[in-house]
C-alpha cells in the first residue's frame, strides 16, 4: 500500500507480548508507508520479542524515550505520532508533541478515570491531566467503538476519532489454532479471566459460579501477571468456594503451550468491567468454546452486534448446570470461527490502519 500524503508516522509503544506481532503486521502490510516505532521498557517483559530493524528504536524505559537521541530524532521528524498505550507518566513529556499525536487507548490506560468511587487528590489530578491532554491531542484511537464512547465521558475532543485494533499477520493469528472437538466431557473445564488485575472481578464471577461447586468442574484462573496481593486474594477465595476444583495458573506459558492449554477449555467466563482480554476471548471462540461476557464491559454488545454467538454472564444465576455447559450449536461455532479467524482479524486491522494511514491498495498479498 502507498501513503498518499508521504507522511512519517511514529508509534511510541511499550515492550509487550503484542509488540513484535504488531510491528511485523505494520511493516509487511504497509510497505509504502513510512512508519517507525519507539519501543520502551524492559527487554525481559513477559512475552516480549525484540524486533531488529532500523525503523525501530528500542529504549530501556518511558523516561529514556525523551533522552535517547535516535528516539528524539524520530519524535521531531514525525508528522503523526501515535502514543500506543496512553502511559500517564509520559503525558507531560509528550506535551510539546501532543498537537500531532493520536492517543491510542488499550483499555487499562483509561479505565481508572471513568470508574466511580475514585476521589483522591492524586486521582483527580491525573484525570484532569488526561482530560487536558486529550483536548490538546490530534485525536483519539480505541480498539473498539464502545471504548470511544467511554473515553468521551472523560473528555469529548473536537479532534478526530478512529477505531484501530492491533493487527497481526494472518499466519500469526492462525498458528496452531483450530476448532477442537477433543475436549473431555468431564470435568467441565472453565477459564476465568486472564490476569491478576481487579478489572477481572474474579470474586463476583466465582460467586456466580458457586452454585455449580458440587458439579464435576475445574476452574482455571490465569494469574501469572498483575497484582501479587490481588492474586493471593483470588487464590484464597477460589479455594474457599471450590477447593481443589479451583486451579490458579501462576506460571507464564509460552504461546504454543498456552494454545494447547486452551484447547481443553469448554467455557470461558470473563467478568471484566472494561474492554480487556480480547485475545483470550477470540481464541476460545475460534476453538468452539462457549464464552460468557459481562454486560458492563461493553464487549457483550459489541460482539452481539458483530454477529458473534456469546452469552451474558449475568444470566448464569438463572441457568441449570446442563444449560450452563451445553455446547454451542455447530452453526454458532462456525460463525464464531469465521468472525475471528486469522484472515478476518487481519482484514479488519488492515482496513482500520489503511484508513488511518491514508493508503491505497497496491498489487501483492501481504497477509
From TrEMBL:
Its EC number is 2.4.1.-. One of its GO terms (molecular function) is fucosyltransferase activity. GO terms for biological process: enterobacterial common antigen biosynthetic process. It comes from Collinsella aerofaciens. InterPro entries: WecF. This is 4-alpha-L-fucosyltransferase. The keyword Membrane applies. Keywords: Cell inner membrane, Cell membrane, Glycosyltransferase, Membrane, Transferase.
Amino acid at each position: 500500500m502507498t501513503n498518499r500524503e508521504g507522511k512519517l508516522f511514529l508509534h511510541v509503544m511499550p515492550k509487550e507480548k503484542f509488540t513484535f506481532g504488531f510491528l511485523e503486521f505494520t511493516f509487511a502490510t504497509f510497505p509504502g508507508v513510512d512508519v517507525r516505532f519507539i519501543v520502551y521498557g524492559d527487554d525481559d517483559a513477559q512475552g516480549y520479542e525484540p524486533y531488529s530493524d532500523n525503523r525501530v528504536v528500542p529504549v530501556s524505559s518511558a523516561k529514556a524515550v525523551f533522552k535517547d537521541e535516535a528516539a528524539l530524532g524520530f519524535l521531531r521528524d514525525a508528522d503523526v505520532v501515535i502514543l500506543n498505550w496512553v502511559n500517564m507518566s509520559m503525558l507531560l513529556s509528550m506535551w510539546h508533541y501532543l498537537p500531532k499525536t493520536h492517543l491510542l487507548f488499550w483499555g487499562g490506560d483509561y479505565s481508572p478515570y471513568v470508574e466511580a468511587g475514585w476521589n483522591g487528590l492524586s486521582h483527580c489530578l491525573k484525570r484532569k491531566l488526561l482530560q487536558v491532554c486529550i483536548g490538546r491531542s490530534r485525536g483519539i484511537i480505541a480498539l473498539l467503538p464502545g471504548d470511544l464512547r467511554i473515553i468521551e465521558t472523560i473528555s469529548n475532543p473536537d479532534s478526530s476519532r478512529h477505531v484501530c485494533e492491533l493487527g497481526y499477520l494472518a499466519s500469526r493469528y492462525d498458528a496452531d489454532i483450530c476448532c477442537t472437538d477433543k475436549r473431555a466431557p468431564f470435568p467441565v473445564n472453565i477459564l476465568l479471566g486472564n490476569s491478576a488485575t481487579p478489572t477481572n472481578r474474579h470474586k463476583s464471577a466465582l460467586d456466580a459460579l458457586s452454585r455449580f461447586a458440587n458439579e464435576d468442574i475445574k476452574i482455571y484462573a490465569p494469574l501469572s501477571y498483575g497484582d501479587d496481593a490481588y492474586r493471593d486474594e483470588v487464590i484464597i477465595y477460589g479455594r474457599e468456594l471450590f477447593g481443589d476444583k479451583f486451579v490458579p495458573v501462576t506460571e507464564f506459558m509460552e504461546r504454543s503451550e498456552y494454545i494447547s492449554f486452551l484447547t481443553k477449555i469448554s467455557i470461558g467466563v470473563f467478568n471484566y468491567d472494561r474492554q480487556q482480554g480480547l485475545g483470550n476471548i477470540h481464541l476460545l471462540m475460534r476453538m468452539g468454546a462457549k464464552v460468557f461476557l459481562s454486560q458492563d464491559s461493553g464487549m457483550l454488545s459489541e460482539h452481539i452486534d458483530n454477529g458473534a454467538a456469546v452469552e451474558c454472564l449475568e444470566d448464569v444465576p438463572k441457568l441449570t448446570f446442563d444449560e450452563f455447559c451445553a455446547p454451542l450449536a455447530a452453526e454458532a461455532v462456525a460463525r464464531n470461527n469465521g468472525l475471528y479467524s486469522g484472515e478476518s482479524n487481519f482484514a479488519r486491522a488492515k482496513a482500520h490502519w489503511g484508513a488511518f494511514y491514508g493508503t491505497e491498495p497496491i498489487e501483492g498479498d501481504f497477509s
